[in-house]
Amino acid sequence: MVAFVLLGTVRVTLIATITVITVALPVVQRDLRVDDAGMVLVASACGLAFGGPPLLGGLPAGSLGRRRLFVAALFSARMRRTK
Known about the structure:
It is a single chain. By secondary structure, this protein is mostly helical. Helix content is 92%, strand content 0%. The chain contains 4 helices and no strands. Helix 1 (2-32) runs antiparallel to helix 2 (36-56). The longest helix has 31 residues, at 2-32. The radius of gyration is 17 Å and the shape is elongated.
C-alpha cells in the first residue's frame, strides 16, 4: 500500500513539473533566445531530468528489495540534511 502511495506522489509531482514547464515555455524561449526546435529539446530534457530517476530507481528496487531501498533512501536523505 505504501508503494502505491509513493508511486502516486511521484506521478503527481512529475505531472505538475511538466505542467509548470509547459506554462513557462514562452518565458524560457524568450530568455534563451531559441526557436521552436530548441524548445522541444528543453522540454524533453526537463522531462528526462524529472522522469528518469523514478524509472532508474526500479532497477535497484527489484534486485535489493523495495523496503531495503526505501530505508536506504531515507537514511541518505537524512544524512544529507544534517550536513
